[in-house]
Every structure is written in structure tokens, then in C-alpha cells.
Design brief:
232 residues; binds NADP nicotinamide-adenine-dinucleotide phosphate; eight-stranded parallel beta barrel; globular
Length: 232
């Protein structure tokens, strides 16, 4: 597995498994299958309602905790300092973990300043190894970097795929020292992406599927990529 080094020195796998839109009933098996396939970065969120099952899969895998890189995201309804802090502690309890590798603010709405301050404190207490944001457009990202000089976000997780390449936003993140992470690399399967003629043509040249071509394109751009499938 290739790793990216975040702005605080923490190493993060460049490819991960996301559990958005996987029901709680399906999550444990999907994560166990992903672990079996070699994934160690697992991306969940409070709003996905499957943190507990992610934790169960980690516990049942028999693989040591240190090998995993677990991300969750704080939902906007849990923003503000106190609510954010309490919600992250609850996420840890749900997953049965005594630390979380990465915690992100899911969206730039409501009191995300207070929420970010809570993440900074959790980070300094050693309960979280890295903190960051998600869906922050360049203006919001620059704002939070300027406003919170204590800890610059390690990650900004944004939609990134061949239909939404994020070239300008990526450049802005690099300027701010923030690592980009791609959600929906396959555009959630929309617009017939797996049969896109350009991707199929590139794949045929290399004996790869369109999905593999996309993952390679993102890795070559030094973008951390989250894939999701319930099919092993
Ligand atoms: N921060 C945010 O706001 C945000 C938003 C969205 C997503 N995310 C994160 O990013 C992760 C990935 O994004 P996503 O789940 O929205 O979409 P995605 O990974 O772009 O696409 C998932 C879809 O592609 C299909 N698929 C996956 N691999 C395939 C393959 N090799 N061949 C054919 N079909 C394939 C899956 O089908 P099957 O499952 O049926 O196999 C599923 O329908 C999420 O799980 C989540 O962790 C974050």
C-alpha cells in the first residue's frame, strides 16, 4: 500500500474503502470483505449510521488496530464546541475505539468554527491523530486555514472524479498545505461512467477496467481515493 504523509507527519493509505449508503445490516460484511481485499483505510461518518458495524468489523478482523486508519465525520447537527466534542466521543464509543485516526467536519455550515476548535482540542489530547474538513470550497478552506492558525486541516475530502476533476480547488489545497481526498471517484456510478468511451479506451490499452483507470489517475495526482462497493 502506498501512503501519503499528512501535514502533521501522520501517514495515511492512499486508497480507502467508504461505507456511505451501505445499510447497517450490510456494513460489517462489506468492511470485512474490504479488509480481506487489502483495505486498511475505512471512511465512515456519523450521518451514515454504520459506525458501530465498522467497529465490529475491525474487532472481528483479527488485524491489529495500528494497521488501520479509521475516519469519521462530524455531522452539521453536531456542530458547536460542546456538541462536536460529545459527538466525537460518542463515535469512538460506537466504534469501540480508544482513538480515531482522522475526524473531519462533514460540511461547511452552521458553527463549524466552534466544532473545529473542539477537534483541535481532541487532537491535542491524543484522542484523534489528524483533523480536517470535507466539502470546503476554496473560499471556505482558505477562511478556516486563516481563522484557525493553531492546526491547519490535514485533509479536505471533496467529490473528485473524471466529471469533476477539482484542478483549481486542488491547487488551492496544496497552497494551504491541505491534502485532497476524493469522494465519489466513480461519480457514484452515474452517467454510465464505467462505460465511458475514453475510460474504456485507456483501460483496453493497459488491460484494466474503467474503475482501475480512475483510481490510477487519482493516485498519480497524489489524491487519496475512497472506493465503495458491496460486491467483493
Ligand atoms: N464527504 C462527503 O460528503 C462524501 C460524500 C459521498 C461519499 N463520501 C465517501 O466516499 C466514498 C465513495 O463514494 P461513493 O460511495 O459516494 O461513490 P463511488 O465510490 O463513486 O461509487 C460507488 C458506486 O460505484 C459502484 N462500483 C464501485 N466499484 C465498481 C466497479 N469496480 N465496477 C462497477 N461498479 C462499481 C458501486 O456499486 P456496488 O456497491 O453496488 O458494487 C456503487 O454504486 C463513500 O462511501 C464515502 O465514504 C463522502
Amino acid at each position: 500500500m502506498q501512503y501519503m504523509t499528512l501535514n502533521n507527519g501522520v501517514k495515511m493509505p492512499i486508497v480507502g474503502f467508504g461505507v456511505f449508503q451501505i445499510s447497517p445490516e450490510e456494513t460489517k460484511q462489506a468492511v470485512l470483505d474490504a479488509i480481506d481485499a487489502g483495505y486498511r483505510l475505512i471512511d465512515t461518518a456519523q450521518v451514515y449510521k454504520n459506525e458501530k458495524e465498522v467497529g465490529q468489523a475491525i474487532a472481528e478482523s483479527g488485524i491489529s488496530r495500528e494497521e488501520f486508519f479509521i475516519t469519521t465525520k462530524v455531522w452539521v447537527g453536531n456542530y458547536g464546541y460542546e456538541n462536536c466534542r460529545a459527538s466525537v466521543l460518542k463515535s469512538m464509543e460506537q466504534m469501540g475505539l480508544d482513538y480515531i485516526d482522522l475526524v473531519l467536519l462533514h460540511q461547511p455550515f452552521s458553527d463549524y468554527y466552534g466544532a473545529y476548535n473542539a477537534l483541535e482540542d481532541l487532537y491535542e489530547e491524543g484522542l484523534v491523530r489528524a483533523i480536517g474538513v470535507s466539502n470546503f470550497q476554496p473560499d471556505r478552506l482558505t477562511d478556516i486555514c486563516l481563522f484557525n492558525r493553531r492546526i491547519i486541516p490535514a485533509i479536505n475530502q471533496v467529490e473528485t472524479n473524471p466529471f469533476n476533476a477539482q484542478y483549481e480547488a486542488h491547487a488551492n489545497m496544496e497552497k494551504n498545505g491541505v491534502q485532497i481526498e476524493a469522494w465519489a471517484p466513480f461519480a457514484e456510478g452515474k452517467n454510465n461512467i464505467f462505460n465511458n468511451p475514453t475510460l474504456v479506451e485507456i483501460g483496453e490499452k493497459h488491460g484494466k477496467t474503467s474503475a482501475q483507470v480512475i483510481v490510477r489517475w487519482l493516485i498519480d495526482r497524489s489524491i487519496i481515493v475512497l472506493c465503495k462497493s458491496v460486491h467483493k
